[in-house]
Amino acid sequence: MKGRTLGILLAGGLLAATAALAIPVTPDDARDGSNGTIQAGWSHTSRSNGDVADIWWALRDRCSPDYLGERLLCDGLRVLAQAASRTFESKMSADVGLPLPAGWGLITANNSPFIQSAHVELPLDLESVLGFYRAALTKNGWTETDGAAVEADRAVIAFTTPDGPASLRLTRQDGRTIADLSLHKPRVAMAGFLPKPEQGRLMLGNRTDESAVVTVNERIIKLAARAGEHLANSESAAGELPASQKLDLSPGKYKITLTVDGSAARSQEFEVAANESWGLLVEHGVLLPVRLY
Question: How high is the mean pLDDT of the chain?
């Protein structure tokens, strides 16, 4: 009798699990998201004049289930990866030298002779991210200046630091908060990185073995495999880009669309401020924004 009962229970559990695999679920960005698998890279450039530049990037893979069973599997993967992710997050923040909120989905960072910067995208509300940065930066000895502009979906704050002026910009987009933190060093960049006066510059590169197409508003830029892959490493590499891969733009927000080797297009909004220079690098099917100046 006991054996029969156990068999019935196992069969029932199997039926329930099988049924769960077939139950469709509504996408939920608050629940479904990064599963903890991280793709990451680092480059170090040392030049004969003593200049050193370090670029970091990390992208956390997403789990986007269509059925309840897949969601349960995603939850399991997320739990298993949390401990390793926390260790990685802590180490990356220490390496970059800037505070990084936990739980991010994408991050890039740059420490060059001209700037120390971090671009972070994470599924948290703006108020929480702002609170994290204010506490962490104060602890690091940064002083917030007067005139902070804080709104429900945007915040711009300037700081003074022992190493130079700094700024933090937070924006909301598609259910996530985007944080751009930068500390400006005294040295002035040359033409390779500098945008035209009162404009912002976007430089496009492809770090993959596949061709890519990037559209900035209505402007289409075709990138061959590995075209401009080293643009963020030095001024000379940026200066060697063809004119088609360097865009000087009026300050504002631009729709950026990426298509890699005929795959489905991915679009996002990207903000460019006056006198900023950014590298947008194709990697793992996404655009990695790296603040260069």
Answer: 83
What is the Cβ-side half-sphere exposure of residue 222, based on CA atoms within 13 angstroms?
4
Determine if the pTM surpasses 0.85.
Answer: no
DSSP sequence for the chain: -HHHHHHHHHHHHHHHHHHHHH-B----TTTS-EEEEEEEEEEEEE-TTS-EEEEEEEEEEE---SBHHHHHHHHHHHHHHHHHHHHHHHHHHHHHTS---TT-SEEEEEE-SSEEEEEEEESS-HHHHHHHHHHHHHHTT-EEPS--EE-SSEEEEEEEETTEEEEEEEEEETTEEEEEEEEE-SSPP-TTTPPSTT-EEEEEEE-SSS-EEEEETTEEEEE-TTTTTTTTT-HHHHHTS-GGGEEEE-SEEEEEEEEETT---EEEEEEE-TT-EEEEEEETTEEEEEE--
Class of domain 189-293: mainly beta
- Type of residue found at 183: L
pLDDT of 135: 97
> Which single residue is written with the structure tokens 């590995």?
226
Q: Is the pLDDT of residue 254 over 50?
A: yes
